[in-house]
Amino acid sequence: MPTRRAETSQESRRLLIEAAVTAFGDRGYRQTTVADIADLAGISRGSIPWHFGSKEGLLLAAVEHTFGRTIDTFPQPQRPGPDGLADLTGRISAFVRLPVTKLLISLLADAMDPDSPIHGQYVDLHRAIRRHAADWAETSLATHELPDGTTPDDIGTLLLGAAIGIHLQWRVAPGDVDLDRAFETLNRVVGAALTPRQASGNAAS
């Protein structure tokens, strides 16, 4: 059974990670100081090297925490149906509004550097999201034909790229970008490229 001291230590670690997610998301990694995070968490600055070794160690912990929550956001693919695409784009629209997404987008510039400590994690996360979107497309859109030469993997790449691009525009100029309208448009544009499969009975007639 955990001791009171251990429970307090775990709580301090949790508060620091949550504060780091907020601070890094609001200001970016380079503009955020250890003092900013400690003050936001209401914990002494010395707790950060104690728990994480350094600011970079705290960044890695915050990103790992966020990635786990990100993957959990996406449910398993559903059975085929006419609303499969609308359901998927609706879930992506909800995802870009989550606080954790703010951190993921804010750290993109750092993650693009191959020498960044979070580069590998971003590669893995984007790969996982693309794979999930592709699985969803393959299952939920089974009632439709994809355009010639297009694969479910292509759909996954397209949807992830659209989600990141829409979110970036919204973050830069929130008054100029209507998220609901943007994702409704994405749904219409992608949906217009899909052709419903003919039922076997209709094809024979």
UniProtKB/TrEMBL annotation:
Superkingdom of source: Bacteria
Supply the InterPro entries for this chain. Answer: Homeodomain-like_sf, HTH-type_TetR-like_transc_reg, HTH_TetR, Tet_transcr_reg_TetR-rel_C_sf
| Transmembrane segments annotated in the record for this chain | none
Domain named HTH tetR-type: residues = 10-70
Membrane found in the keyword field? no
Q: Which UniProt keywords apply?
A: DNA-binding
The UniProt entry, under Gene3D superfamilies, shows: Tetracycline Repressor, domain 2 (1.10.357.10)
Indicate the residues that the entry says bind DNA: 33-52
- Whether Cytoplasm counts among this entry's keywords is no
State the Gene Ontology terms under molecular function.
DNA-binding transcription factor activity; transcription cis-regulatory region binding
What name goes with this protein?
A: TetR/AcrR family transcriptional regulator
Q: From which source organism is this entry?
A: Amycolatopsis suaedae
